[in-house]
């Protein structure tokens, strides 16, 4: 006998109504939007010079500084450790819709990935943020090829391909003129639904380099992503996203609130659930 059978009938009805209600709430929850994950990395081959406790201490100092400072600097920070010829330069940026809390957690997690820790030149991408470090001064430089993520059997509706690409190109030309060089836009494609675009440059770029960076990344990966329905492209100075659902958090100003709102929502839901259980 299940415990539900012990409830009087009205309570079973209440339970049923409440479950339906909370399922609807959960399905429409802002929290389904996105979760973080490791996308991959690019690094030059292991370097013997990185194999000393002193180098590790310097790298770790650099990483700690990125974790501590980027979230309070609106999601972007550059720093350096070591001196003279042994200098290492680091740069990090969080996606512009993240809360400071999510931004800090993302960078922290990136610094815990070990794959590139013997390299003096590395970029590590997570969905929510990326970290780049090098023994060369990398600030403000134009971009190198990075990576693209997509599902190679999930094709864009043929009717939407050209409109989608125009939308993405417009995104690339609009983003450099936005505050923090971060921008989201929605394209209504009628019966095929909506498309959500986002683009972002690192804030050490000039507006004109931001535009060049986005155009370059788009041109580099156009053959691969041009007919795909959901994709993102990541360089080490700019990134672009195109999805058929809203994958980013609702945000008010760049690098504000999104994730915190989501946390609040989860809290309210769990409070109301536990009230019901009483
Ligand atoms: C963002 O806000 C809009 C309008 O209030 C809502 O329809 C949408 O579900 C929200 N999306 C997310 C991911 O929070
Ligand atoms: C790294 O160290 C190993 C062992 O000491 C040595 O054989 C190798 O040549 C070194 N590599 C470089 C690039 O210096
Ligand atoms: C670093 O040192 C360890 C142990 O001394 C060795 O196994 C490893 O191959 C070295 N790595 C590099 C990149 O030199
Ligand atoms: C680590 O940093 C110190 C000073 O900040 C510097 O003197 C030293 O050369 C660096 N060591 C390595 C191995 O990069
Ligand atoms: C960071 O990693 C921890 C442990 O794997 C995980 O629970 C957490 O969700 C991650 N957070 C982010 C923002 O990546
Ligand atoms: C650093 O790595 C990137 C990507 O792998 C590469 O394009 C660049 O030339 C490298 N830079 C140096 C100084 O090795
Ligand atoms: C890729 O897209 C296809 C077609 O839409 C879908 O069936 C498949 O589950 C997707 N694969 C992944 C890993 O999401
Ligand atoms: C895309 O842009 C090109 C050039 O501006 C224009 O000729 C074409 O009609 C546009 N296509 C769509 C579907 O908007």
Please explain how this structure is put together:
- The protein has 278 residues and is α+β, with helices and mostly antiparallel strands.
- 36% of the residues lie in helices and 22% in strands.
- It has a five-stranded antiparallel beta sheet, with helices on one face.
- Helix 2 runs antiparallel to helix 3 and helix 4 packs antiparallel against helix 5.
- The radius of gyration is 22 Å and the shape is elongated.
- The N terminus is likely disordered.
- Bound molecules: 2-acetamido-2-deoxy-beta-D-glucopyranose (8 copies).
- One 2-acetamido-2-deoxy-beta-D-glucopyranose binds next to loops.
Walk me through the topology.
Elements: H1 9-27, E1 38-43, H2 53-69, E2 76-81, E3 88-94, H3 100-111, E4 121-126, E5 129-134, E6 147-150, H4 161-174, E7 182-188, E8 194-201, H5 207-225, E9 231-234, E10 238-243, H6 258-277
The chain binds 2-acetamido-2-deoxy-beta-D-glucopyranose (NAG) (8 copies).
């Amino acid at each position: 006998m299940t415990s539900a059978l012990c409830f009087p009938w009205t309570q079973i009805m209440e339970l049923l109504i409440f479950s339906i209600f909370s399922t609807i709430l959960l399905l429409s929850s802002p929290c389904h939007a996105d979760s973080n994950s490791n996308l991959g990395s690019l690094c030059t081959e292991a370097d013997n010079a990185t194999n000393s406790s002193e180098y590790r201490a310097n790298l770790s100092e650099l990483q700690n500084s990125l974790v501590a400072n980027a979230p309070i600097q609106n999601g972007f920070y550059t720093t350096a450790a070591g001196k003279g010829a042994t200098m290492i330069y680091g740069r990090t940026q969080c996606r512009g819709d993240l809360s400071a809390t999510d931004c800090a957690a993302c960078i922290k997690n990136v610094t815990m990935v070990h794959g590139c820790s013997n390299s003096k030149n590395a970029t590590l991408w997570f969905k929510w943020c990326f970290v780049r470090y090098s023994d060369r001064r990398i600030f403000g430089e134009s971009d190198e090829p990075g990576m693209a993520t997509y599902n190679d059997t999930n094709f864009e509706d043929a009717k939407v391909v050209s409109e989608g690409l125009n939308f993405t190109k417009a995104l690339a030309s609009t983003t450099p003129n936005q505050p923090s060089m971060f921008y989201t836009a929605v394209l209504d494609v009628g019966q095929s639904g909506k498309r959500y675009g986002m683009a972002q440059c690192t804030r050490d770029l000039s507006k004109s380099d931001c535009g060049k960076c986005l155009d370059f990344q788009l041109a580099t990966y156009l053959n691969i992503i041009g007919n795909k329905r959901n994709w993102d492209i990541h360089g080490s100075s700019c990134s672009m996203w195109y999805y058929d659902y809203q994958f980013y958090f609702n945000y008010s100003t760049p690098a504000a609130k999104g994730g915190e709102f989501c946390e609040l929502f989860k809290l309210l839901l769990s409070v109301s659930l536990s009230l019901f259980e009483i």
